[in-house]
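Work package 3, deliverable 3.1, input record:
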Amino acid sequence: MADEGTTHAALHSMHLRWQVLPDVVRILWETRGQATLAAVEARLREALGVTCTIHLGASTPAAGPHLAFPIRSGDQTVGMLSVEASDAHTVSESDRALLASVADILGVPLSQPERDSDHADKFLDAIIENIPDMIFVKDAAGLAFKKFNRAGERLLGVAREALIGKNDYDLFPPEQAKFFQEKDRNTLNGKTMVEIDEEPIETATGRRWLHTKKVPVLDVDGSPLYLLGISEDITEKKADEEALRRLAALVDSSSDAIVSTSPDGQITTWNLGAEKLFGFRAEEIIGKHISALVPPSRLAESRAVTQRLKSTGAVVPYETVRRRKDGREVDVSISSSLIHDRAGEVIGISKIVRDITELKRAELAVVRARDVAEAANRELESFSYSVAHDLRAPLRAIDGFSQALLEDCAEVLNPEGRDHLDRVRKNAQHMAQLIDALLALSRMTRSEVERAPVDLSAIAQSAADTLKRASPQRKVEVTVQEGLQATGDARLLSIVFTNLLGNAWKFTAKQPVARIDVSCVEDNGRHVYRVRDNGAGFDMAFAGKLFGVFQRLHPVAEFEGTGVGLATVQRIIRRHGGEVWAQSSLGDGATFCFTLSETQSPSEMTSPQP
Amino acid sequence: MTHSAILLVEDNPNDEALTLRALKRSNVANPVVVARDGAEALDYLFARGAHAARERLPQLVLLDLKLPKIDGLDVLKALRADERTRLLPVVILTSSLEEQDLIRGYSFGANSYVRKPVDFAEFVESVRQLGMYWLVLNEIPPALR
């Protein structure tokens, strides 16, 4: 190649320029032979009858069509005779004839042009073939593929044989083919390069994204001959960019301050959240040291955290105080992590700083509310203490002195008088029961709900056994389903079953064969526990009143009771996060159902109910 | 034989009358001394002030909890802290069934805890059983004889 280059330079050392007007034709005679310029000029003048000058100098690269013949002397190429046309002129047969006559004039033999281009074409093809971007050529008329390189085959997943001669409609979905051809036409009609920054293309391995440049190849008349396309596969780059953009959007839209620093603490990035939290704009703070945000009292802590982060690679988020531009201090929570490059070197530190002022305020409010609730609870406790103590004392006096009257003055009391006193006593005793029931309800409400696995079958069975022992004369068939397991407070759930079974027991008193059964059914994925009886039942119209304190659906004379039992049941079930309800029709038994929350928040379990 | 007294510490005159009536109906022969507040109870137990002339310790103390001046539990604490009354049988007789009262009553050294029932018949029965147990069945330590 170097030798050729040298030869080439030598060949270009002499120019013979001949112009034919109006269209410019340049005849170049290049030689390293011995002929003198003057002799050549004289011969041309004599032969062609025109004045011509021989121009000596460096060759300019040919701009238009070009026809060249080597001038040979024996085996050696001693020069080159060529015709060069301007853009508007094609090399024609007459040019060829002209050249031949010039050669004749010059007395140099003209050999057939050497197909130099064969070698150059191969070289060019090899380059095109190996360029890692897709390169294709389409003919301007039908936009069918003429040429296609390896990168293109690889990209589309199709061999060139399947592409050459086809157009976009043969290869791609109509929408895409339409788009490609529109761009092709724009390129060819506009005769300028068209750049398509991003275009999708369906390939054998799915959709890829291309960055394409389309270049018109025109003939000397300026009519489009070919369309040259160069497409870079930007699918991965695009995905990376999108991921980056998404990340950037996240960082931008975050209400937390997201800040990164160099390993030694110079601030390198600063998001909108940081601007809001600290009051510094990015351009004011980037490049400053992160300690500009740390109040003096926290500098040691901040340094220690950075030290720990660098030595262990991680620190847990911690709560601290930072200083704003205006000097105001804010409560924040900070998570820090190291930023590594691909090689694993630490290239920075990222920090997410959250303003927890509101959180702190809310925490304080919770503490205050708890204090208030606890104070109210203590008050309630002392209130129920006095209820227990002070309300019972007068009742005891009423009952006791009525009894004393009955005993001491029996002879002056007629039956009616004794009946009155009996009623006084009965009522005093009933009121005492009511007080006890209310106290139990209040105690139950105040006590904490302890959550543990409980055997509801055993609890129900034990409540039933207690009832049987208390009234052995009753004939009641009690069935308890085996293996009822739940999570809750065993003591409180035992009160639930004592009340529900107690009710069932009481309201079946008038049945010849009393039946009570305890079971569990699944309903919408939750466990529903049921206590069913075949007793007196109740009118569903009054079901809403069932669970109110002192609400009764039956006259005391018919079924005794305090009217607190179901209220107690409801409170216990609610404190377990469950529900309780009842179904019945008068005279046809009743079913009491309840659920227990299976996933309960701790607050639900322990907060005292008003 | 003269019986030692029962000290009834009770501020409510109704309860006092009813308790006395119940004791009488239970055929308890011991004399009953009534202290109407905690301070008076301690004066009697430690034979001081108005009760300086008190000869023998009572055989049993029936102690209400809610009392004027000195609370029942404080009376209990004081008499358990004193060598002379350390072993004296004390039955808390009260309206309260609060868990706290029960726990504190026993932890301060009460021998029994009985809730006064509203039903007078039950009350008489309670007092009868108390009398039977503490005055008849129960053996007291020699120091108190």
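Chain B has five helices and five strands.
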